[in-house]
Amino acid sequence: MLSQENRLSFFLSFVSLLGVLLIWQFSTLPQASRSPYGIPDGNTEYQRLMGRSAATSTVKSDFPTPGMFARNAIEVLHAPFHNNGPNDRGIGWQLGASLLRVMIGYGLATLVAVPLGFVFGLQPVIQKALNPFVQILRPISPLAWMPIALYTIRDAELCAIFVIFICSLWPILLNTAFGVASIRREWLNVIRTLEVRWPQRIFFVLLPAAAPTILTGMRIGLGVAWLAIVAAEMLVGSSGIGYFVWNQWNNLSLSNVILAVLLIGLTGMALDATLAFVQRSVRYAE
Q1: What is the dihedral of CA 140, 146, 148, 151, to 10 degrees?
Q2: How far is C-alpha 161 from the chain's CA centre?
Q3: How many CB atoms lie within 10 A of CB 193?
Q4: pLDDT digit string (tens) for 201-259?
Q5: Are 208 and 282 a contacting pair, CB within 8 Å?
Q6: pLDDT tens for residues 179-203?
Q7: Which pLDDT value is given to residue 54?
Q8: How far is CA 204 from the centre of its chain?
Q9: Cβ(129)–Cβ(119) under 8 Å?
Q10: Using the 8-state DSSP alphabet, how is residue 59 labeled?
Q11: Which region, left, alpha or beta, applies to residue 240 given φ > 0 means left and ψ of -120 to 50 means alpha?
């Protein structure tokens, strides 16, 4: 049974969705055509001159209505993994290509950032020495790296992975360093007194203690990575959900663009929920 708070939250979410759909519906209704020169729309000679019937006095919006979008979405999602060539691939195939790139770049960033974050957290001198470089590189937009990556790597696929790597590296690195540096001094003194070896210190004390903070950085890094891959694929991709959005825009298929935007949001929410579940499972009470 849902609690009263959950039922109220569900009701408010439903009402909000209904409100968005109603606004969408009314904003895409046909509107009365207007002459830029003040000539009445009912003027027969004017209507014929403009190539329209005299009875035609409304103009349809180019933006799809909710009904049109729903019909198009059902048609597209009916065969999401069809592949009829580079320019005609299903949206499921495109989404999978983006996820693969994200997982490769994000995985590499995690493998680099977590050990480096441990070094930063345990060695304040190294952190102070390298922190200025991190603070300079961290705020750089991922897309600003694209020209350099294209010139040096000369491979669009590897460039997209590099963008994911470089933009998800910093949140994981900084949160790992903060988590390790925040470990209680008493615990560190105990493991020094017991002369615990470094592999055991890391895997049985430091890593479990810093895990919640590390996973927070990983959640932030994954969100940034998912944002960056869409923009990167718009520029250099020949596949992926970002390429799909740009290609459908060029084809003036706004329904497909809206569908892709919704799938991007739902996929990002699913990825974040997965890491949130893992983060809750590693929390502990001191």
Answers
A1: 180
A2: 14
A3: 8
A4: 777 778 888 888 999 999 999 999 998 888 888 877 778 898 889 888 888 888 999 99
A5: yes
A6: 988 887 777 777 777 777 777 777 7
A7: 47
A8: 33
A9: no
A10: E
A11: left
